[in-house]
Give the backbone structure.
Amino acid sequence: MLQVKLNATRCWKFVLAVIARFQGDHCTRHASALSFSTLLAFAPMVAIIFSMLSMFAATASLGEGMQDFIYRYLVPTAGDEVRQYLEQFASQVSALTAIGLLTFLLTALLLLFNIEESFNDIWRIKKGRTIAQRLTVYWAMVTLGPILMGASLSLSTYMLSTQIIQGSEWEAQTRSLGLRLLPFLIEVLAFLLLYSTMPNKRASWRAVAWGALVAALLFELSKRLFSLFILNFNNYEVIYGALATIPIFLIWIYLSWLVTLFGAEIIASLDEEPQLLDEEPEPLNEEPQPKEGLSLLKKGSERLLKVFQR
């Protein structure tokens, strides 16, 4: 029982330390800046990712599945509207000039640069990567990231569609559970890739795993709460009218970055305090030892005698 109390106390102190570090690093400001960069670069990033997938025959079929997954599970309440805007944008990309395409690419690179700088601030890293290293990392994030995500999504969908367990009832329950867990598993994979790649520091895999797991849990919780709020409090439509999708989408991006930065703070805190994962807590003496109690009683009586002598 004492060990459970000690572990609970350590976990609570760690949570408070992460929250204090989150506030001290001004993560709300970082989230605001990243939200603005994401709003500018979202359409270019999505267009680049899906165009990269369509370049390879093995991954060309993953693009449509990834789009459905992203708009359905990762963008709550406004997925259809956002998808419509992005499809209109993608249809006009071919009409851009060379300067337009360059600006198109620079906005995507600016987002990745801001993400790296925010993570470096959280990890207290003063020296960033060189230009060549940054281009290599950014290229890997834009190309390998979507391919891995699409492959895992395709594999998971295939496994859910395969009749592994006999019996219609068990099969239906298994597929239902798998479909519920699939977005969460994809989110964990995405956070793992982001936390292990973007900061200019190699964090321990155990810390990255914990941070990605907590971030994915908070992301799922945020989705449900945000969807509940939007469905029950729809006064924003009266104020914004047809433009209501824009503030909703912007608020959701901001909440997503808050969750992402909080997960990064967890990893950075675990990296600085590895004993939180490895070392066992030292038992606390709830009751004073006999010798210590006698010495305290002796000192107290001596001070009391001095007071009376005065």
User: Anything to note?
Assistant: Confidence is low (pLDDT under 50) at residues 279-293. The radius of gyration is 26 Å.
